[in-house]
Amino acid sequence: MYGWRGRIGLIVPSSNTTMEMELCSALPEGISLHTARMPLRNVNEDELIKMSALAVESAKLLRDADVDIILYGCTSGSFVGGKDFEKELEAKIEGEVNIPVVTTSTAVIEALKILDVRDVLVITPYTDEINQREREFLEANDFEVLDIRGLGIEENTKIGRLEPYEAYRLAKATFMDEADAVFISCTNFRTFEIIEMLEDDLGIPVVTSNQASLWLTLRELDVMEKIPGLGRLFREF
Predict the structure, then answer these.
(1) What is the pLDDT of residues 85-139, one digit of tens each?
(2) CA 191 to CA 39: how far, in whole Å?
(3) Considering the domain 6-104+211-226 in this protein, what is its CATH number?
(4) Strand order in the sheet with 144-149
(5) Tens of pLDDT along 137-174?
(6) 71 has which bridge partners?
(7) One fold for both 6-104+211-226 and 107-208?
């Protein structure tokens, strides 16, 4: 059967066209991915809050597939409500479906911690409004955001059409020697092809939303594979 080693239930915004593809490209043998969606067209605070209220219904659909863990796959949708928002969301979903839950924001925090990061540069496709919420979330979790640069895009399908080189070039343009790591935010921002190139060029770890989400989800499933191409994080199991 598919998923004999573990089944991941993924909840994504309806307009996300990247996360499923990136995760599927790197899944270890025996791990399967099963997806449910929540309505979202634009990455703004109002739509993100409304979307999160529908997470439980999506999780109930995934429960029918007998998944082993549920991943709430939206970075901004899991930090938009502040420091404890993602933990409250995880607890709410778990309480309804009795399945372990992780969010992308939790995965990012855990990834930065295991890489011993304090000072971080953040690259996003977001507007200034969402970037400010992300800065507040990271700083509330004891990270120093040296700089945060966004592309000012609100329409999520436009984010999904961005090429990986756009994240690469923005990260290089933002780089400063004081940084312990670069974090590229957004599960709809394609990054897998450029993670190791950026690490080689900058000499520091690179964390991305989809990479961190996959890493933590696999760790929770006790699947400890070092996946080639996904950077230092996958050498830190």
Answers:
(1) 788 889 999 999 999 999 999 999 999 999 999 999 999 999 999 999 999 999 9
(2) 24
(3) 3.40.50.12500
(4) 144-149, 119-123, 181-184, 206-208
(5) 999 999 999 999 999 999 999 999 999 999 999 999 99
(6) 10, 102
(7) yes
